[in-house]
Amino acid sequence: MFSAFFIRRPKFALVIAIVMTLVGGLSIFLLPVTEYPSISPPNIVVRAVYPGASAEVVETTVA
C-alpha cells in the first residue's frame, strides 16, 4: 500500500530522495568535532636480542 503511493508518483519519490541526500550531506558539516572519537596512533614495540652489539648497531640492523 505504502509503496504503491511512490510507484504512482515517481517524481515525488525522487524529490524525497534528493532532500534526504542534501540533509544528510549538510549534517556531516554540522556535526561537532567532539562526536568523533579520539584515536591514538598505533605504537609498535620491537625487542631484539643481539649479544655483544650496541644499541646503535641493533637499531640500524632492525631498521
Average pLDDT, all residues = 86
Could you spell the SSE succession in H and E letters? HHH
Dominant shape: rod-shaped
Ends distance? 66 Å
Most strands sheet: none
Oligomer: single chain
Percent helix range: 55-70%
Strand residue content? under 5%
Number of helices: 3
Low-confidence stretches: none
Tally the beta strands.
0
Please state the structural category: mainly alpha
Rg for CA atoms: 29 Å
Q: How many domains in all? A: 1
Quick gist of this model?
With 63 residues, the protein is mainly α. It contains three helices and no strands.
Task: List descriptors.
63 residues, mainly alpha, 3 helices, 57% helix, rod-shaped
Describe the protein.
It is built from 3 helices and no strands. The chain has 63 residues and is mainly alpha-helical. The chain has one domain. The longest helix has 21 residues.
Q: In terms of topology, how is this protein built?
A:
Layout: H1 2-8, H2 10-30, H3 55-62
